[in-house]
Design goal:
This protein has 490 residues and is mainly alpha-helical. The chain has a single domain, classed as Up-down Bundle (Growth Hormone, Chain: A). The protein is 76% helix and 0% strand.
Amino acid sequence: MAVVDGLGAPAETQGVAAGGLKPPASVKFFYSIGQFVESGYLAINTFIFFYYTAVLGMSGSMVGVALAISMTLDAALDPLIGSWSDSVRSRFGRRLPAMLLAAPLTMVTMGLLFAPPNGLTPLLLFVWLTLTKGGVRAFASMYNIPYFALGGEMSDDYVERSRIVSYRLLAGILVSVLITALAYSVFFAGEGGLQRPENYPAFGWSIAVLVLVGGLICCAGVWRYAVALPQPVAAPEPMGRRLAGEVAEMLGNRTFLILFLSMLLFASAVGVHQALNNHTYVFVWKLRPETIQVITYVYLAGILAGVPLTPALLRRMEKKTVAAIGFGLVALGWVVLPGLRGLGLFAPTGAAALPWLCAMSLVFGLASGLIFIVFPSMMADAAEEHEHIHATRREGLFFSGLGFAGKAAGGMGLMLGGFALDLLHFPREMGRQVGAVAPPEVLSHLALAWGWVPAVLAGVGALVFAPYAITRARHEAITADLRRRRATAE
């Protein structure tokens, strides 16, 4: 491959120049630290809905609409970010400039999200939530879309791509454990800790700083490898002229549409479930904050188990089969325990409920691990299929589509969760009353909404995913052809 901007290819990029894209472990390690941005956001995301409804007293519908608006507007920016990232030419490669700009902006908006000024009216609080949540998500996207696209570019090997995602997922698990421990054992520790508004600003700013540090460490650690990866050889057309055609070209790709729509449904399911998590744990299962973190650790342990399991499965199975197993396990985990509780057949509380919730969380974590590793790997395969057909590289735009699906659907899931609270007539004043008890029928319906609604959405997502058709053999044929084309071009 040609040297970029006059910079000699360092030793760690020799594989790139030789045509075999397999980064060394050190590059994969530093790359994985960038997952702090996404995992940090996802970890605090579980507290936002509870904070603004139960603690600050906003209606579930208002909070749900605010979150849906912010996430949908952000999702609409994703194609712009992806297209821009695809077209950048710089001495730091085409991905790092956006990442370096986005990391500090993510930190600032994340801190402000948990520190609204005192005395805001419900309408102004709605505006604050919409703007700060939208800012966090938009700037995180400015980091994550180039970051995920970089991961797809780092290797062209069918299994190695899943290993790179595994490194990233492992780092995400570790930072999620750290954030969970800080949340439940430090910032929200003690009886009613989640229900005290004064605990939230310090939590938000602390996690924001952690996200910034991880994002910058990643950029510093991978730039020598990233700069040797392919960049545009000519200046692109202005985005206003090219974007519509690029998006139309992407939407004409059947494989992309299958991945996009199935992720849209799966992310909607996760959004509904996560929106109601803390309400269910506190009011249905009557758990203390210190106990809730145990469930989170078990969930992360399930994802951790999926990190080595997924590449092992992929040596024997197609990616499609592994993803299907993940969909099935997720639906099973959401059906059984919530159904038993919602139908009044099994209603333990406190310590008695913990083992059962941990078992459900373990299944969900393992299944999520399979899906979270395989889906980005499949999207990278789809981007190569697209290059094979159209002779254009669109990794950034493809991963922006995956991000769009996840965020737009996640916002929709949160909105559905907010509507569910209002439809169930969940008492708004309970949030600030430690030890308050809701009517039994409300709790039963809340348990069903927490489990069965996302299970149905995940099941439909699995049906949409069924026609996916890039097999190992097809991928090897595509990459062999692309290598021949690139060798000829050189």
